C-alpha cells in the first residue's frame, strides 16, 4: 500500500503542471517586401518563425503560463528593451492553442 502511494506522487506532480502553449502563424496577403521570417519573443526566449502567405506555419511550442508575445526583426539584445511599436499580444495561461 505504501509503495502504491509513493508511486502516485510523481503522477500528481506532473498533473499539476501548467499546459504549454502552441501557436501557428499566417501572414495573409503580406506585401512582397515583407520578411519571410521574424523572431517570436515570449519575454524569456526567442525563436525564429516563418511567415507563410498562403498556409498556416508549422506548430511553434511556447512555455506555459501567461505570456506577452512580441514579433521582432531579430533576437532582442536586452529583453527589457523591446522596440517601441513592435507587434505584441497578451496570451492568458488558459489559452493553449492559438492561430
Give an overview of the whole structure.
The structure is a single chain. The protein is of the alpha+beta class. The chain has one domain: Immunoglobulin-like (Sandwich), CATH 2.60.40. Helices cover 14% and strands 28% of the residues. It has 1 helix and 7 strands; from the N terminus they run αβββββββ. The strands form 2 sheets. A 4-stranded antiparallel beta sheet has the order 3-2-5-6, with no helix packed on it. It has a 3-stranded mixed beta sheet with strand order 4-1-7, with no helix packed on it. The longest helix is centred in the N-terminal third of the chain and has 14 residues. It is globular. The N terminus is likely disordered.
Top keywords for this entry?
globular, three-stranded mixed sheet, four-stranded antiparallel sheet, Immunoglobulin-like, 28% strand, 14% helix
Strands side by side in the biggest sheet? 3-2-5-6
**Number of DSSP-assigned strands:** 7
> What percent of the residues sit in helical stretches (DSSP H or I)?
10-25%
The separation of the N and C termini measures 46 Å
Largest sheet: 4 strands, antiparallel
Structural category: alpha+beta
CATH topology: Immunoglobulin-like
Task: Write down the Rg.
Answer: 18 Å
Query: Which overall shape is indicated by the principal axes computed on the Cα atoms?
Result: globular
CATH architecture: Sandwich
